[in-house]
Amino acid sequence: MSSNSAATNQKDVLVIGAGPGNLALAQILRKHDIPFQIFERDDKIDPRRQGWSFALIEALHELPPLISDDLGDIHTTSVNHNIGVNKDTMTIVQAASGQIMAVLGNRLPDEPGHLIRGDRQRLREYFSQHLDLQVGKIFSHYEEDAEGVTAFFTDGTSARGCMLVGGDGLRSKVREQLLAGYTEPDAAKLEPSQWIPIFGQCELSREQFEPIHDFSSAGILAAGPTIRYMIGPREIQADRSSASYYWAGAYASQGETQSEWAAEAEWVQNATRQELFDRSKKLTENFAPFLTKIIDYTGVEGMLTRPPRFIEYVSPRQLPRGRVTLLGDAVHTMVPFRGQGANTAIRDACDLGRLLIKAGGVPQAPEDLLQEYASNILPRGREMVLSSRASGQQLQGVLAATKGRVDTFVGAGSPPSGVIPLAGAHA
């Protein structure tokens, strides 16, 4: 536990932040009796800040052997769990024509290519089980010495451990300190993305949501020359009477510089619901009708004001040697077009967890172990950030992102006739 004065001779792993990767790491450590403390700055997490749901694909196969069975079945976190659907499916289509380009998932849990589209809040609750998550702990700084590392918080408390993992997100304070004055150029530089997101959410009746769900149970991804668009379920009532859905559109700024991109993102941040609705209608006016009816269902009142911005952070090529390391968005922040943000964070946790398990816990001098960890995650993180960017830049990039993850590829397929148009629109 944290205290007003740092404890001595601690063997704990200090975990800063409680995102999916850090929670997964905590569960790995818990199963293998490796002592740790985990700290979260917020008292309550709003899942909309980071998106409503995310797909578990590669991480779904790496993580389960490393965590305890007492967490239960991870499939209970699926957006389709309430209705007993056990084959989550994501479908990629061309925005204008509606042609099916690729299908991800559509596999049973024991089949290769299986995925879970997990509700973010359910996943958070799943990974938080049996953890002493210390909330309201705003990280200030750390001090490292030959015997260990001490984390300090703004409430005046501190915690002592043998190593510290900074998984405190995009604007990581741990990264800021770790890479301060680092010799690698731009090692800690955040870059605004050219892509500007807009979000909406709505409640749909059975006749409204079933055509979408029957077409693709866990979500639809649409790609056009300058826009990426997704429709996905958050929760479906067990009797299928209604469902909560969201949609997200990201359009490419026509500005030529990062400052122009940032200015356009600022406009979206300050826009009214009506302005966001009008912009969304204009951006999707040439889309296949079955993709845009949900915007009408959403209406002005369902637009999300002050949507999160897309920021990128390309992993450095190495991390300083010591007792402090990084995980997840703190070390690689990507646009969501490849669906790899949470997957990569959880894979980071698996990599670090396996090394600690192999070592029998945290070594008294963990520097070599953390350098090996960094050598595993940094190249992957760089590749994921850059390939996610490429997925935004061209349609072929979107399709390339499905390599090794695709159930079906259809070069000129079409949505089922029953999907166009959606039935039952009402104000």
TrEMBL record:
- UniProt keyword annotation of GTP-binding present: no
One MF annotation (Gene Ontology) recorded for this entry: FAD binding
Ranges for domain FAD-binding? 318-385
What are the entry keywords? FAD, Flavoprotein, Monooxygenase, Oxidoreductase
Q: Is this entry keyworded RNA-binding? A: no
| Needed cofactors | FAD
- Gene3D superfamilies, from UniProt? FAD/NAD(P)-binding domain
Q: Which domain of life is it from?
A: Eukaryota
Protein's recorded name: FAD-binding domain-containing protein
